[in-house]
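Request: Show me your protein:
***
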Amino acid sequence: MMKNPLFNLREYGQSIWFDTLSRKLVTSGGLQKMIDEYAVVGVTSNPTIFDKAISGSAEYDEDIRQLADAGWSAPQIYEKLATEDVRAACDVLGPVYEQTNRVDGRVSLEVSPHLAFSPEETMEEARRLWRTVDRPNLMIKIPGTYESIPAVEQMIYEGLSINITLLFAVSIYEKVMEAYFKGLERRVAERKPLDQVHSVASFFVSRVDTMVDKELEAKIHAAQSPAEQERLKRLLGKAANANARMAYQAFKRVFSGPRWEALKAKGANLQRPLWASTSTKNPAYPDTLYVTELIGPHTVNTVPESTLLAFADHGVVRGNTVEEDLEGTREMLRQLAETGIDLDDITGRRLVDEGVRLFSDSFDKLTAGLRKKLEGILSKNLSD
């Protein structure tokens, strides 16, 4: 079989993870097909993904009925179903985990988004999920809020592999990398091994363009001259990739020098940048925009099915694009600031708050759907 462009990304050090998980994907052989035919070497999940999988399928109904009969609550049932799906996916990806020297073959499972601002509860849930899934290629997802940064450090210190999600701002990303270093250094101080601890930092991309473009469109509408309108239009669809490129430069800066080399010598693994939210939201932009422009060494791109298939069909791999025209990227960001758009506020606060809210809404929708199913099952039991 001819290899599609997704396989070419490996030549430049980028791994493709699949941003979808369901029981059917695993049991039907779909995940194995993604590995064999689409170069997929990992899977991510979140409350929105599980909401679609569980609420949108009858495949879980018998398990839900049995757990309801046993007196389980809706949140308990969700966790049971989610951890079973993740464990099964971990097993399918086990050979990839071994073949890549434990770098890839990873499956991510997120703590409840309602705990995003509660580090102690986040850590408690992370530990429980880690024990429940009981697979070395699991990654626990912790939201990248300021409040969660101490939880990241502590979980790394305890030896869990962590995916820090909902990152938008380079400034917060730098704090996440520092937490990773501190967690590893605490392990070194106690002579604990480092080689089994892995981490990725999930930097969300397309949502930045969605919010920035909305502000740019308002300014374009209010512009007093055609020249000003054209200047503003040239900034549309540029902020997200520029922001990610600056994050990659921060990654290169932090993971170099004596401090990193000392950890690396003791077996430490890079905390790789992961590009998330890489489906193109604006139909006016190329459907592979957030893959084509962010290719580079030691990166992961987690893509939904539509983006995966689009890149397999007509993706272009032209090299290390995440470092293309950095001078032009910085100039674009300078111009964006001159327009009055506060990218630090957008990425450091507004998008994080929005992301936590959206995932919380999905989690609530999922548990509400489970409660509705439970009510139906209990009512049927009473009538039988």
